[in-house]
Amino acid sequence: MHEHLIKQISYFIQLSAEEKEWITEKFVPREYKKGDYFLREGQVCREIGFIYSGLVRYVVIKENGEEMTVDFDKEMFYTGNYASLLDKSPSGTSIQCIEPTTLLVISYDDLQDFYTHIAEGQKFGRMICEVLYVKAIKKVHSLYSKQPEQRYLHFLDTYADLVPRLPQYYISSFVGVQPPSLSRIRKRLSK
After folding, report:
1. How many CB atoms lie within 10 A of CB 103?
2. Which of the four pLDDT bands, split at 50, 70 and 90, describes residue 144?
3. What is the pLDDT of residues 66-105, one digit of tens each?
């Protein structure tokens, strides 16, 4: 299990045998059932998880009580609310497992040790932040400048491999339309 995490980290930075051992000790396996939450809205995020297997969605509750899916993460990526983790503020989103999910979890304190203990730890942290920043900017741009059909096409470009794993109402929520509207968009695009 840890070999997948080490492989993913090694994509960005070089790791010594001692550093790989340290990572194996600090990232703790945790199992979640479908529907379980890694983080609930209002809680302070105190750890980050590497998704070994499974799929999570990020959920915001609108003022009217309606759930809105704002993002997804799958195997070989990280999950958590980084803003909440850094400034210890309550999370504005929930992170829900939509499949049985196995995470390798590291606490905030151990993550800070990672940055100093691992020779290129700071570089790794910066590179992951850059990936998250680009993803966030693209998401915001899409929400403010694209019509639902364009957002659906963007979803397909970005998450094509997730389509068979996701209920349609999560996809419609992500795109920002009701399920019947998503059906009409899909029908138009299939012509």
Report:
1. 25
2. confident
3. 889 999 999 999 999 999 999 999 999 999 999 999 999 9
Q: How far apart are CA 96 and CA 33, in angstroms?
A: 10
> pLDDT value at position 148?
87
Distance CA 76, CA 103 (A): 10
Give the HSE-up count for residue 15: Cα atoms under 13 Å, Cβ half-sphere: 23
185: which 2 tokens? Answer: 């968009």
Token pair of 133 as six digits: 């920043």
Long-range residue pairs from 58-62, CB within 8 A, at least 24 positions apart, any chain: 58/93, 58/94, 58/95, 59/93, 59/94, 59/95, 59/96, 60/92, 60/93, 60/94, 61/94
Token pair for 120: 């290129």
Q: How many CB atoms lie within 10 A of CB 181?
A: 15
Taking alpha carbons only, the member of 8, 103, 96 closest to residue 50 is: 103
Among 38, 36, 13, smallest CA distance to 23 is for 13
Contact 151, 142 (CB under 8 A): yes
- Rounded CA-CA distance 150/134 in Å is 19
Give the per-residue pLDDT at 170.
Answer: 93
Q: What is the 8-class DSSP label of residue 36?
A: -
